[in-house]
Automatic annotation (TrEMBL):
It comes from the Eukaryota. Residues 27-126 form the Ig-like domain. This is Ig-like domain-containing protein. The keyword Membrane applies. The chain crosses the membrane at residues 6-24. It comes from Hypothenemus hampei. Keywords: Membrane, Transmembrane, Transmembrane helix. InterPro entries: Ig-like_dom, Ig-like_dom_sf, Ig-like_fold.
Length: 283
């Protein structure tokens, strides 16, 4: 009877040993996508790192979603296989057992990629890691502000629009008046062109005294952003009725001072010639 217990225990430990040995045969399968946020048409490198723990590599398979597009099998004559996949361009010469380079990346590649590593006999262990990639297109130009031409005072309504050229995803736009946010859009794909969309933000703001700064000025900014990827802004000083020195005049200040400085000199020269001719005549 006691012998059975011993055999049972021995079986248990042997099973446990082989089981855990298999499990730890392949370790640390990790996929990293560099860059993971990639500009449309650019390239990205998918790196798969793994620890074979003395086992032999059988294959590394690469998937976009559920579909395989690249396979590396060192034991076969043709080690690499590229499977046709609409929209994926593999750079074969820079791809190997640990990385795949994708070129001319299309928008529809946004999504999950995975690498699946399998070791050879006797263990034949498989492990997978998955990461996501996002394909973007930044706006080609800065945002533009358009406003009416009227001089603004408390009680008036400030009307403006800000517009950012096509991007994907559409940028978030924000209006700031004297550095305080007064409007923000919730970007959604509309006015679409070639899978990209404009972003627009209208502003209709009844002005009161608190909107003007201490000098009675109104500085309007439009900020365009894709968090972590893109940030651009433009600013425009609006004509304010409260501004003691209107913008148009302030812009001319420098010129005015220069001409004021030349005036005394002109008078002196004129006086000199008058005096000189008077003296000459008197002689
Ligand atoms: C895309 O590629 C261009 C030129 O190679 C590079 O200047 C730019 O930084 C890349 N953009 C992104 C988002 O990777
Ligand atoms: C991805 O986009 C490219 C070009 O726009 C197209 O040729 C390809 O068929 C698309 N692939 C899929 C899976 O939709
Ligand atoms: C795969 O290629 C990259 C870049 O050329 C290189 O750094 C890496 O060591 C290669 N991997 C193997 C296993 O040869
Ligand atoms: C990508 O993977 C994440 C987590 O694994 C999942 O939540 C998400 O739905 C996947 N995205 C797609 C497009 O399959
Ligand atoms: C803002 O856009 C709207 C709609 O396109 C237009 O009717 C309005 O005149 C524009 N306002 C300004 C100040 O440009
Ligand atoms: C605008 O506000 C931000 C914080 O909201 C602050 O860091 C910045 O200094 C302010 N700029 C000016 C010109 O007041």
């Amino acid at each position: 009877m006691v012998a059975y217990y011993w055999i049972f225990l021995l079986d248990f430990f042997l099973t446990f040993y082989f089981f855990t040995k298999d499990v730890i045969a392949l370790k640390n399968v990790k996929l990293s996508i560099e860059p993971a946020v990639v500009q449309y048409g650019n390239q990205s490198t998918l790196k798969c790192s793994y620890d074979l723990e003395n086992d032999i590599l059988y294959s590394v398979k690469w998937y976009r979603g559920p579909l395989e597009f690249y396979r590396y099998t060192p034991s076969e004559d043709v080690k690499t296989k590229i499977f046709p996949f609409d929209g994926i361009t593999v750079d074969g010469s820079n791809s190997n057992s640990t990385q795949v380079v994708l070129r001319d990346i299309e928008f529809n590649l946004s999504g999950n990629f995975s690498c699946e590593v399998t070791t050879d006999l006797p263990h034949m262990v498989t492990a997978v890691d998955e990461q996501s990639m996002m394909v973007i297109q930044l706006p080609e130009f800065s945002p533009k502000i358009s406003v009416g031409r009227e001089v603004l005072d408390s009680g008036d309504i400030l009307r403006a629009n800000c517009s950012s050229p096509p991007s994907r995803p559409p940028v978030t736009l924000k209006f700031k008046l004297n550095n305080r946010t007064v409007a923000q859009n919730d970007p959604h794909p509309y006015r679409k062109i070639n899978e990209r969309s404009w972003s627009d933000l209208p502003l209709e703001l009844p002005l009161d005294d608190m909107h003007f700064d201490n000098n009675g000025r109104l500085l309007l900014e439009c900020v365009a952003m894709l968090p972590g990827v893109y940030h651009d802004q433009v600013e425009l000083e609006l004509e304010s009725a409260k501004d003691p020195i209107p913008q148009r005049v302030r812009g001319l200040n420098g010129v005015k001072k220069a001409s004021e400085q030349t005036k005394p000199l002109l008078y002196i020269v004129l006086c000199y010639f008058l005096l000189r001719s008077a003296i000459l005549r008197a002689l």
